[in-house]
Amino acid sequence: MPRDSSPHQRQLSSVFASLGDEGRAKLVEERIVSGISAGILLDGDRLPSETELAAALGVATMTAREALTSLRTRGLVVTRRGREGGTFITLPQGDRASLLRDRLASMSRVELRDLAIHYAAIAATAAELAANAADEQDIEILRGLLESGPHRLNTRGTVVGNFLLELASLSQSARLTREHVRLHTDFGSLLSLAHADQDFDAKMIALCGEIIDAVASMDPARARSLVGDYVRSGVTWLIQDQSNPETDRMPRTKAVPDLRVRRTS
After folding, report:
1. pLDDT tens for residues 51-94?
2. 254: alpha, beta or left, given left = phi > 0 and alpha = psi -120 to 50?
3. Matching fold, domains 7-94 and 97-255
4. Phi/psi of residue 64, each to 5°?
5. Each residue's pLDDT tens digit, 148-175
6. Beta strands in the chain (DSSP E)
7. Which of 184, 243, 217 shows the shortest CA–CA distance to 40?
8. How far apart are CA 226 and CA 235, in angstroms?
9. What is the pTM (predicted TM-score) of this model?
10. Is the pLDDT of residue 258 over 60?
């Protein structure tokens, strides 16, 4: 069934979605930083103008200007004048991992687990609905996403992330899909740290293959369970990463729990 936008376009829309009445400079700044952390806004990307940014986020132009000033101070954006000018994303050494690690370090385990529970509830429900609605063309699209380069260093995390975003779109619920996109920017970006671990990434790619089989077999309960396994594995890795900051770039084969998690009643 046709898609109205790519996974990246849906994520990009979430970055510039209206902040509503809570719009303040700090919230604008955090929204842009979350887009950078999630890999939606990349080094060299041009941001909307102050006026366009303010209109998109539903804040005053002065608020958007204040947020951009703060981002410039942090070295995350640079503004150039002239015909080809504008405000552009600029990452130190082009590396966003430090932003993610700073964010992870600032979160308590309670906050992290709570975010994971919310993400799992949305992603698992989407998988359950997708298993009841997907057709053969949808299954082929999902398989294609897993074959889009899972062994390349620069695609780790994005393969599974885009896979889950596509799975959410198959739920045929616009509201559920929008919430999944928002949470993917929030929690999914943290999971990219786990996907930098080759062992974790390989196991999760394999797990996505099992999810496809469940969807193809129209087995919603198994599809839901497998997505839950993915989130549990991810949050376990992140918690161990918080506990071992000095070894955060070392492989963690023991950090990934048995994917067949037994549930207690």
Report:
1. 999 999 888 999 999 999 999 998 899 999 888 889 999 986 55
2. alpha
3. no
4. -65, -40
5. 755 444 555 688 988 999 999 999 999 9
6. 77-80, 86-89
7. 184
8. 14
9. 0.76
10. no
Split at pLDDT 50, 70, 90, the class of 261 is: very low
CB of 12 closer than 8 Å to CB of 40: yes
Q: CA distances (Å), 46 to each of 10, 32, 64, 77, in order?
A: 17, 12, 15, 9
What per-residue confidence (pLDDT) applies to 248? 44
- Give the single-character DSSP code of 88: E
Considering only the top CATH level, what class is 97-255?
mainly alpha
> pLDDT (tens digit, 9 = 90+) per residue, 93-126?
557 888 899 899 999 999 999 999 999 999 999 9
Calculated CA dihedral for residues 97, 239, 165, 76, nearest 10 degrees: -20
Residues 164/184, Cβ–Cβ less than 8 Å? yes
User: Which structure tokens are listed for 202?
Assistant: 């390989």
Smallest Cα–Cα separation from 131: which of 56, 221, 45? 221
Residue with token string 């609905």: 129
Q: In this structure, what token pair is assigned to residue 64?
A: 């958007």
Q: Any idea which fold 7-94 has?
A: Arc Repressor Mutant, subunit A (1.10.10)
DSSP letter at 264?
Answer: P
Domain ranges for the chain: 7-94, 97-255
Amino acid at 97: A
Strand-pair partners of 79 = 87
- Per the DSSP assignment, residues forming a β-bridge with 87 are 79
